[in-house]
Amino acid sequence: MKATVFHDYGGPDVLSYEDFDDPSVGPSDVLVEAKAVALNHLDLFVRNGIPGLKLEMPHVLGSDISGIVAEKGEEVPDTIEVGESVIVDPGISCGVCEFCMKGEESLCPTFGILGEHHRGGYAEQISINHRNVIAIPETSGLEYVGAAAIPLTLMTAWRMLISRAKIQPGDDVLIIGIGGGVALAALQIAKTAGARVMVTSSSDEKIKKAKDLGAHLGINHKTNAAYHRSILKETNGRGVDVVVDSVGAATWGKSLKSLRKGGRLVTCGATSGPIAETNINLVFWKQLEILGSTMASRSELRDALKLVWDGRVKPIVDSVYPLSEANKAHELLEKGGQFGKIVLEP
């Protein structure tokens, strides 16, 4: 089969479209013929090299995959049929530890992500345990490109907002850096939960698009560096109930200042850097909660997908490239100009 791989760490130029061994199919595995695979910022981090992460080279990126079941092992249940359209749950866990037994797979000590800790979906085919395969209902009307834009970002946003921050109807939610997949999923999930959503971006165009999706307020943090003051003004000095911040060092202090007393900051990443200064006085005096969140459990993903299947949350796709031009797609993602997901087609 054909796959896009890298043999050494580096920039987009290390990505190579080449022949690669066909995957083997174990007794409990499903062979998925990939129809689309979406990019995540995680792909950039892995390609550049994550300290402490040792990969079997050449490595195949790609966490978000949609496709068709081409083959299945003899132990795969009849509920999964050859020819069925599916998406792939990118979380890999042991299934037997104390956390997996509680249905908290993303806390599993051996938890890994497809395309990061395991070879992923920048390929024509992928073999995966049948528990990671989810059928796409025909009634959803989803095409493969849109379906690939869903799993990782949707599950991440759902766990952040619903399971960790526990948003309620009427909450004010601030999303830092609208435009990426997690932020856009968070915007839509928060709206379905009855929250009022505010967003920041360095792009007026992205802010306009976010408002079209239901954002109440958009602030350009390039022209309004003290955006937290605008948030306080908008909320009559109270602050927001929840801040979603996956930017990290560049926005951390202002995110904390944007919160009401007893407010919650939830984070799933740090695209601008992981080392940020925290005013501890602010944390204890305002009794703030700082919540970490990674991916989601199998059940959380399936709960979140109900919103997609019935059309309340829609995949937002920025652009589509052939798999052979993954390097160009990476260049676009690195520039940060996209609004929504960038998707590859094998």
What features would you describe in this structure?
Strand 11, helix 6 and strand 12 form a beta-alpha-beta unit. The termini are close together. It is globular and about 60 Å long. The chain has 2 domains: 2-150 and 315-345, Medium-chain alcohol dehydrogenases, catalytic domain (Quinone Oxidoreductase, Chain A, domain 1, Alpha-Beta Complex); 154-292, Rossmann fold (3-Layer(aba) Sandwich). Strands 3, 4, 5, 8, 9, 16 and 17 form a 7-stranded mixed β-sheet that branches. Helix 4 (151-164) packs across helix 5 (181-192) and helix 4 (151-164) packs across helix 10. The protein is built from 11 helices and 17 strands. It is of the alpha/beta class and 346 residues long.
Radius of gyration, CA atoms, in whole angstroms: 20 Å
Average predicted local confidence, pLDDT: 96
DSSP strand (E) fraction?
15-25%
Note the main sheet. 7 strands, mixed
Number of strands: 17
The arrangement of helices and strands along the chain is EEEHEEEHEEEHHEHEHEHEHEHEHEHE
Please bin the fraction of helical residues. Answer: 25-40%
How does CATH name the architecture of the largest domain?
Alpha-Beta Complex
Say what oligomer this is.
single chain
Structural category is alpha/beta
